[in-house]
């Protein structure tokens, strides 16, 4: 009999999650039935959306999230032993799944990884997975950047933000990144960002005016809050805004109060669109193909913050909400 370690949602989050909110339990898994397979987690993804989606969860539910897992036992011809899958199994070390599991807002069907050892397995949670697709479609399909335009990225040293900035450079844009430490600003400069702003040390409005004296054409927003209002207030007519995340308010109770940006949306005829990356599931391979191509060409660099040990999942999530990570945050089981 296989025992699985599982983190369950034990108490509604108040501020940054702790082990009081996410309880570690053990489950005895049954024997496999026909069409089922057993997957053992290798890497788990840690993402800001987990904090944002928590109010939609029920007490006792397995904490949501994606993982790369190895198939260790199988009664399914479609999922043979030894292969790897990506799936939203949540925060658990072992999972029994079938070929066609029920899919909902938190659960997607498992997908076999074309893993050949040429890249780390964890990349299929990041640059070659959901994060990479988020950056690719969220920026290109919504912002529709044109060569020579000025692009601003908030949360620019995170997994999505750092990726978006590099795509913008590939497309011939001027790129300004907003991050929270000098070290993060220095790192994204090595990725090709033209200007950086440390929002904890600098006056964002003033620094942005200096970096983009002719205004901003595209804004990829990962943080929301006052930074979003500041950037939007300096956008050019017919500018485009891709609203990917609002991490600045995830740990607050209720809706955060910020200065309104609606007058700028109206007077400058800006387009703003929020999105969820699963909208592009039918085009997912396009993102993977181009991200791989850019990596091979040396145009796309990638960094991970790796936490060792499944028992440290809660601290890894708390870390990204504090801004401790640079690049993609993953936990190595």
Labels describing this entry:
333 residues; Quinone Oxidoreductase, Chain A, domain 1; Rossmann fold; seven-stranded mixed beta sheet; six-stranded parallel beta sheet; 27% strand
General description of the model:
GO terms for molecular function: 15-oxoprostaglandin 13-reductase [NAD(P)+] activity; 2-alkenal reductase [NAD(P)H] activity. Residues 17-331 form the Enoyl reductase (ER) domain. Its main location: cytoplasm. It is an enzyme of class 1 (oxidoreductase). The protein is of the alpha/beta class and 333 residues long. It folds into 2 domains: 2-126 and 303-332, Alpha-Beta Complex (Quinone Oxidoreductase, Chain A, domain 1), CATH 3.90.180; 130-277, NAD(P)-binding Rossmann-like Domain (Rossmann fold, 3-Layer(aba) Sandwich). The chain is built from 9 helices and 15 strands. Strands 3, 4, 5, 6, 7, 14 and 15 form a 7-stranded mixed sheet that branches. It has a 6-stranded parallel sheet with strand order 10-9-8-11-12-13, sandwiched between helices. The longest helix has 14 residues, at 130-143. The radius of gyration is 20 Å and the shape is globular. The two termini are 20 Å apart. The model has no long low-confidence stretch (mean pLDDT 94).
